[in-house]
Amino acid sequence: MIVQALAFYAFAAVAIASGVMVISARNPVHSVLFLILAFFSAAGLFVLLGAEFLAMILVIVYVGAVAVLFLFVVMMLDINFVELRQGFLQYLPVGALVGLILLAELILMFGAWVVAPGAPQAAVAPTPSTLSNTAALGTLLYTHYVYAFQTAGAVLLVAMIGAIVLTHRTRPDSRRQRIARQVARRREDTLEIVKVRPGEGA
Amino acid sequence: MTAAPDFLPVLPEMFLGASGMVLLIVGAYAGARAIRAVTWLAVLALAATAAILLYPAWTAGVTRQVSLFGMFVTDGLGVFTQTLVIIGSLLSLLIAMRFNEREGIARFEFPVLVLIATAGMMMMIAANDLIALYLGLELQSLALYVLAAFARDDVRSTEAGLKYFVLGAVASGMLLFGASMVYGFAGTTSFDGLAKLFAGGGAAGVGLITGIVFISVGLAFKVSAVPFHMWTPDVYEGAPTPVTAFFSIAPKIAALTLFLRVMLQPFGGLFGDWQQIIWAISVASMAWGAFAAIAQRNIKRLMAYSSIGHVGYALIGLAAGTAAGVRGVLVYIAIYLFMNVGTFAGILCMRRNGKMVEGIDDLAGLSRTHPALALALAIFMFSLAGIPPLAGFFGKLYVFMAAIDAGLPVLAVIGVLTSVVGAYYYLRIVKLMYFDEAQGAFDRPFGGEVAAVLLVCAVAILFFIAWPGPLLNGADAVAATLFPG
Question: Do B479 and B323 contact (CB within 8 A), yes or no?
Answer without folding.
Answer: yes
